[in-house]
Sequence to fold (271 residues):
Amino acid sequence: MLAVVSPVAANASAYVAEAESAAVLRLGYENGSKSSGNPALGFNECCRTSIQVDDLPRTGKYAIRSYLKYGDQMVAGGARAESHTLNIKNSHFGAGDTVYYGFSVYLMSTWQSDSREDILFQWKPWRDECESDKNPSAFLSVQPSGKWRLRVNSDSNACSTSDSVRKTSFDLADVKPGQWHDFVFKFKWSHDSNGSVDGWYQTHKNPGWRKVLSATGPNTFNDDKSTRGYLKWGIYKPAWNTGPTEVESRTVIHDNIAVGKSFSEVDPAVN
Ligand SMILES: [Ca+2]
Ligand SMILES: [Ca+2]
Fold:
């Protein structure tokens, strides 16, 4: 089990952005394209309307809108409209890496609660040769309870099965439609007790970073050194793989997805 350390109020002044971001990856969509100038960015989309540039930005002029409706043709084995970094090497992670991630997510003011979760950001390792399926190491979801939840999956076994994965969940904050939700996570990736994850959160209507997560323990899989993980964002609605729920469609907007070595490099609230 991941041990929860008591959350500590963030010293906001410690996270004032540097004048220039040196993030290894930062997608702000300011060139007006859905690849944000990264030709290697991938898309799991059924339709032309699944993933489009939008002019409701967190900063600048543009962001990326992901749209999924129940009954959309399944993509990559599921009901999803997601952008991904499978082919962007400097976004990849593995055990032993310490990495900061930042991003901002906007939920439409018309967002309705549902009986099943929506997954809006994923850290997803690919499979070892001995593995037939693989959970994400972590993912951020909107819960039926109205909370943002980070799920962390780990496994010390070299060959993971669906039964061998350990799952831990952390509720981080309240879901607020009609607002930008800013997140920063610091992962020290490990499948053993050397792992840790810290999380910070604010909304654009209530700025001021709060530390909402400080946990230690395993947070990824025991994988071959050549096995790496990548990022996905947009909408994944697992329940729609098998049937309808109370809502018929989902729209979310993401902006300033960043990977870096410090909080300031990945701060999604600054350009
Ligand atoms: Ca932008
Ligand atoms: Ca493995």
